[in-house]
Specification:
Layout lengths: L1 E5 L3 H12 L3 E5 L2 H10 L1 E3 L5 E3 L2 E3 L10 E4 L6 H8 L8 E6 L4 H6 L7 E5 L2 E9 L2 E7 L1 H13 L14
Parallel strand pairs: 1-2, 1-6, 2-5, 6-7, 7-8
Antiparallel strand pairs: 3-4, 3-9, 9-10
């Protein structure tokens, strides 16, 4: 399964890094300077655990072609522009997940895709240093309980991403 994150900021880098570490084929789409740093230094995650992972990264959204799931992790106000850039590669096969802060994201995505192809997730993060690429740090870390809720929701929809994640309420 190939998962592409559109927006390689704190949320996209964190979840993309965790998925890559667990063996998922991940692509991060982000700003050129951040992508360059990820390609040179890898992506370092700290918080619940500390590791550095080599992950594919690009600044061209069209490189997401062929993804099974495209995860939108941009700021809410960038959702429309991100989807407009993806329009040439959005087809009947791809699912799009909104993993964003803010309201109105699902409604915006539904202007581009059938609702059956959209997965909505609420993001709730605890603020501590977590993602670093080339010394630039983002301050966010997932609360384990919320990761378990996300896993349960995805498993219910037949998408198995967090194979190594377990907990008492699973």
């Amino acid at each position: 399964m190939k998962i592409t994150f559109i927006g390689a900021g704190s949320i996209g880098s964190l979840f993309g890094g965790l998925l890559k570490k667990s063996g998922v084929d991940v692509l991060l789409i982000g700003r050129k300077d951040h992508v360059k740093s990820i390609m040179k230094n890898g992506l370092s995650i700290s918080g619940l655990e500390e590791f550095n992972v080599r992950v594919n990264a690009s600044s061209n959204p069209l490189d997401a072609k062929g993804s099974d799931v495209i995860v939108i992790t941009t700021k809410a106000y960038d959702t429309k522009n991100a989807l407009a850039e993806l329009l040439p590669i959005l087809d009947e096969e791809v699912n799009v997940m909104s993993l964003q802060n803010g309201a109105g994201n699902l409604e915006e995505i539904s202007r581009f895709l059938k609702k059956q192809k959209i997965i909505g997730v609420v993001v709730q993060l605890v603020r501590i240093p977590a993602c670093h690429a080339g010394g630039r740090g983002f301050e966010s870390r997932p609360d384990r309980f919320n990761l378990l809720k996300l896993k349960k929701r995805l498993d219910f929809q037949g998408v198995s991403l967090f194979s190594g994640l377990s907990g008492p309420d699973m």
